[in-house]
Amino acid sequence: MFFRFAVLCLGILAVNGQTIKWWSTATLYQVYPRSLKDTNGDGVGDIKGITESIPHFIQSGIDCVWLSPIYKSPMKDFGYDISDYLSIDPIFGTWEDFLELSNALKAAGLKLVMDFVPNHTSDEHDWFIRSVNREDPYTNYYIWKDSLGLDANGTQIPPNNWLSAFAGSAWQWNDQRQQFYLHQFTVGQPDLDFRNPLVLQEMKNILRYWLDNGVDGFRIDAPPHIIEQIDFLDEPLTNDPSCPENQFCQLNHIYTMNQPETLDILREFRQVIDQYQSETGRVIVLMSEPSNLHNFTMSYYGTEQDPIMDFPFNFNLIYDLPAETFAIDIKAALDKWLLDMPTGKVANWVTGNHDLPRTRSRFGIDDGEFALSLYMIRMLLPGVSVTYYGEEINMENTFVSWQETRDPQGCNAGPDLYQKYSRDPARTPFQWNSQNLAGFTTGSTSWLPVNPNYVNLNLEDQMSSIRTEFTFYQRLAEARKSNTIRFGSLEYKSINNDVFAFTREIQADDKYLVIVNPNDIEVRVNVRAAFPQLPEIGLVYLSTLGLTTTANDPIILSDVILDARGGLVVNF
User: Which one is catalytic: 216, 289, 310, 505?
Assistant: First the structure.
């Protein structure tokens, strides 16, 4: 099989006459800006810190930096409550800092993607202030509803029983306007009304503004919540005995999430992107958070004839893998996405983000090997791979006390339940070195505590040794650049429920084999019996750190020994 590659301008690659867009084989790196690097000593990461990190991005072999919000915000939800979509929050720096970052990334050959948060604004946004005052055209920019009257205590009764994702009623009374407003997240995040065409046009203008300023794409936040059922009916109870009082899990969210009109709104965003690409020739990526419903997530793709998202994020390697994972679970997670994904679309693989526990911690903090095995799977499957900052050195969750908790979801849960709901443990500062506060800040404090293990787990130490988590990540990133991993075929299977394995092949003499043992005991396996087309002997390309095999060691495929939770990449 002969493949012909031709590089075209503006982010398009031609493969055998077919165009491949830059993002379709990219490694995305999610930066949580508060936690990457602080350059002014205030304990909060900033844009200059991201710019200073570009050499690290290059050494990591990533293709694109994705930023969580850096827009102006009162930080009630740490940037996801936006008071001005067209400005940079001073805590992160200036507009000039942003332009410097954008230009430096382009000079380094890296793309820049930003979070786009359309569902809600901050209650300090000018639109909301004017809406409270009933100033047209802003009067109906948000979801306002009348009270149902007063209860026995003289308190205003909300329009229905809807609950916030951060606990408690999703309705907040506004004395000035004498109505309730909807907030599906914090009280400081009023929901916009997307049935108002002016709101939709405002959001489309925001997309174009950032495209005009050099951004290469967007990740859409919280699309399942973007529009509500028009009759505002009470949602049914789940009757879940394990769900605490007033928590989101108390209700079945059939009226506040996944409404059919959601896709119409996402199509409007798609039209902005398509028009911009047509006008400029630039390739822009549009991706989104998934729905909580698998089928609805798949609908975000659209079809070949009616595309919507380039891809919704795939959390199957997070939600579908239990703490005690078997090979069949991994195969099922792949099947669920690859078999249901619409024709002609691109897959993606995610193992962690700012809302979820870190990969290493989900399977027990001492189980660093299985996290590495999952990174191996994520980075060598076809499609897009997403790395959450710190995964390249295998960071784990940090204990954050109740007194130190900053996340509103954790704070709203109270001191008894905050550890169950807080997202802070996965958002702590990046561990650069073994110096004070892990080299994250020049100051004496950090906005969240640094994990005490930074003394032994940090980038600088891992770069100074040959066989570490970071050198492991670098080797995976190097393999992702190969044509075999970018464009090769995929065959995957579970072997006797003990071992998960897959091959990537682009031609007969150019193959990779990935083998993972999810069990907590060593296993011995005949891989060649499952993949008889493979040669009897291969060469080790990479192994997880517990395995004694190292690069270029020969390995007999009919008798492979894998450590508990370990993995191996073989090349031919």
Answer: 289
Asked if 243 and 250 touch (Cβ cutoff 8 Å), the reply is yes
Q: Which of 77, 193, 221, 469 is catalytic?
A: 221
Could you give the C-alpha distances from 55 to 50, 91, 104, 395, in angstroms and in order? 10, 23, 10, 19
Each residue of 161-218: pLDDT tens digit? 999 999 999 999 999 999 999 999 999 999 999 999 999 999 999 999 999 999 999 9
Question: With helix as H, strand as E and coil as C, how does 128-148 read?
Answer: HHHHHCCCCCCCCCECEECCC
Instruction: Give yes or no: 221 in active site.
Output: yes
Architecture of the domain spanning 486-571: Sandwich (2.60)
Q: Is 289 a catalytic residue?
A: yes
Domain boundaries, the chain: 486-571
When pLDDT is cut at 50, 70 and 90, the band that residue 11 belongs to is low
| Residue at token pair 């205003």 | 156
With tokens 């993949």, the residue in question is 531
Q: Which residue has the tokens 């009897």?
A: 536
Across 311-334, average pLDDT? 96
The residue assigned the tokens 């909060």 is 44
Yes or no: say if 313 and 289 are a contact pair by the CB < 8 Å rule.
yes
pTM (predicted TM-score): 0.95
Structure confidence at residue 508 (pLDDT):
72
